[in-house]
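Hello,

Our lab assistant flagged a job as stuck in the queue for most of the afternoon. It eventually completed. Since we weren't sure the result was trustworthy after the delay, we are filing this so someone can double-check. Below is the sequence as submitted and the structure that was eventually returned. Let us know if re-running is recommended.
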Amino acid sequence: MYGFAIDYPDVCKVDFNSKSRRETGDVVFTFPNSSRIYLSWGELEKVSKRFASVQEHADYSLDTMKKGKNVLNFERVSRDTLALRNHNTSVNKVRFDEKALKLFGRGKDISREAYSLHVHCDKSNRYFVLYSMAAADGELKFDRIMESMRDSFKCH
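-- returned structure --
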């Protein structure tokens, strides 16, 4: 539909943002337990003005997450640069605790893991970000799911 392809688990419900178009948009893959994986895309020209590389783009995204007001104990677990269909990509995994807020005080913090893939594609003039956030002790193995989705991704 928008010139890219990705394989996703067949248990997922797929929802495109109604404002999505070829140049920019997002889609969410929702699992039966309400966990989600997101794919966002936009105009490469816009991010290229701000970031010299896909790694800088990914670092900015992670720094923004790290500075979140409910984020504690942020730790980068892994950072890789991989070639994916002749594109350099930045693949990251982080762990952090999310402050649980209750009506009257704080609840127990929630340990989270987040995974991301950043791709810059000159041919389609778009960038893509595939990301997920899940409870660190969750039943779904998001690292394997993200790896499978990453390996199947085609941006043009």
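-- support follow-up --
The delay was a queue issue, not a problem with the job. The result is valid. The chain has a mean pLDDT of 92. The CA atoms of residues 82 and 88 lie 6 Å apart.
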